[in-house]
Structure formats: C-alpha cells, structure tokens
Design brief:
Structural class: alpha/beta
Strand content: 15-25%
Order of helices and strands: HEEEHEHEH
Helix content: 40-55%
Number of strands: 5
Strand order of the largest sheet: 3-2-1-4-5
C-alpha cells in the first residue's frame, strides 16, 4: 500500500504546475505558470506577493529562477518576502546548462 500511495502522491504533485518567479539581472520580476505556451508577465516589485497569491492555490509550488548575475541577496530577499507572507511552497530553479558552462572556464584557469 505504501508504494501505491507514494505513486498517487507523485501523480497529484506532478499535475500541479508551479508558478515561476523570474528575477532578471536588473532586479525586475516576471511571473508565469510553468506550462506549455505560458509567457512571462512583468510585474512591479511592490505587487509581488499579491500577484503570486492571485495565481496559486495551497498546492501550487512557487519556484524562483534567477540569472547567474543576480546577487544571491536579491534572491534571498524575494524568498523571504514570499515566505513571511504565507507562501511556503518555495523552491529554486537551477539552470544546469549555466552551471556546466562555468566549469570549463574555471578548469582553464588552473
């Protein structure tokens, strides 16, 4: 029964599309549901919490995506703002291609 329950939970979890909060290098924020055809919509920073709340349910995960040039502190501030306002299903979206691209450059320095 345990494995069937886990499979069902995974299917339910997979059917809920996350909301992506994208932070650009210049600090601008855009939102989109992570589903085919969805486009980013720019929002003003003071509207962040209200805009996120209007687009999610209690089951909707929120993922934060940021360019590698965005200061870590900026990402943490966005996460903290969402968390302190009751949005707790948060995660970070990692760009694997960007991480892999930086490895050869550091290897060349050696």
């Amino acid at each position: 029964h345990l494995s069937l329950r886990r499979q069902r939970q995974m299917c339910i979890r997979d059917s809920v599309k996350p909301l992506e909060v994208q932070i650009s290098e210049d600090g601008k924020i855009a939102l989109r549901m992570r589903e085919p055809g969805a486009t980013m919509q720019d929002i003003a920073r003071p509207e962040l919490v209200a805009q996120v709340r209007s687009r999610i349910t209690a089951e909707t995960p929120v993922v934060i995506a940021a360019d590698g040039k965005v200061p870590y502190e900026t990402v943490v501030k966005v996460m903290d703002e969402l968390r302190t306002n009751g949005i707790t299903r948060l995660g970070l979206l990692v760009d694997q291609s960007a991480a892999g691209a930086s490895q050869p450059a550091s290897a060349k320095k050696r």
